[in-house]
Amino acid sequence: MKRHTLVLAAVLTVAALVVPLSAAGAATTSAKANGPVVKIGVLLPINSPTAANPDNGDAFKAAVAAFNKRGGLGKKHSRIQAFVCDTRGDSNGEVNCARELVSDGVVATVGDLAYNNPAGVVSIMEGAQIPRIGLFETDLAEFTSAVSFTVNAGPVADYVAAAAGLAKEGKKKVTLVRTDAPTGASFKGFVQPPFQKADTDIVGDIAIATGSTDYSPYVAQLQRSGANSAVLAIDEQSASQLVASMAQLNAKIRLAGISATFSLNTLRKFNSVTKGTLLVDSFPYPSQNNVKNFPGLKQFYADMKASGKKNLQPTNIKPAAIGVYMAVLSFVKLVANLDTITKDTVLQALKTEKDINLNGLAAPWTPSAPGYSLFKSSSNHIVFLSKWDGKNVVTQKTPVDITPFFPSS
Fold first, then answer.
1. In sequence order, what are the residues at sequence separation of 6 or more whose Cβ sits closer than 8 angstroms to the Cβ of residue 118?
2. Lowest CB count within 10 Å: 58, 226, 311, 331, which one?
3. Count of domains in the chain?
4. Which domain, by its residues, includes 101?
5. Residue 107 pLDDT class (50, 70, 90 cuts)
């Protein structure tokens, strides 16, 4: 399992996590939390040239504001001060942000995404002994880092769960549709073994070039591959263009991918192509019709709505926002029993706290629980399957355990 294959998986799938905020600095606080200030940080590709999603930045600030209003952190109701650093999606930017957040004195980073030089970020954070909580792991260095503690299974697991879901529907001939990246040629070889264990065959591998405007050749490749399903490892904008071209050419192939890949507008507009689309994520899809089965979504919606941001209102919010929210929620729950919150006490809590309730939006979290296969720092090995039924995105209540599809060592 080469490091660059894991980097590729993240590049292809988490571009929707880009956050347009200013560089590290601005804090979100509230008088409701009147204890000592606790600094947390996040490094994200805010102005990356590959994609943009303003919801994540707004969701991060909304989550911090909501928890401050509800009393802040720990037993002394400490106030959260949130520092955000723009990596600009490049390797130097990622390590520079890591250094900047260390200099800012954060006790932890929450919801990080680094995909060009994640090993460099790990080196800096491990050297400073600053824990990273709820990060979106993209590299073997992160999966095995002593200071990395994720609460989601991650994009690699998501893709494999998609393959398992497609197989269950009899859609066992899969074509991969991915971004044309330098390391792209290795992507198929990396995911093929777990796909096969999930009873699916990869019969095609299509690389979409950055900046493409004509998607009809890609649709033609998809049709010639003989696939009855396609797993999309591309960003939202590319997916929208591909789906539009499929609709124009009347290409009927079952689609699947991470939730953030498909906008609701695309699902609704091209229903002849998108009906039945399988969406996968480590958390339930944030839609109003899923609140009944996942009551924790109600608080998520309330916290987002309270921000007053138009893009965080229930009818507008995108699924990527819940990942950032869950990272903040996990940190707040982790330190709930602490009197003093420092990087040292946070690391200790990560070693000792067990079965942390994440409002039913993820499995109870024991940060120190041994991982599985390459997921050394993750105790969460479940992925939720959702489906676009033509009107709504409906999440299955029982998630998929991805551990049977990976070797135990």
1. 7, 94, 137, 138, 139, 141, 142
2. 226
3. 2
4. 3-153+294-378
5. very high
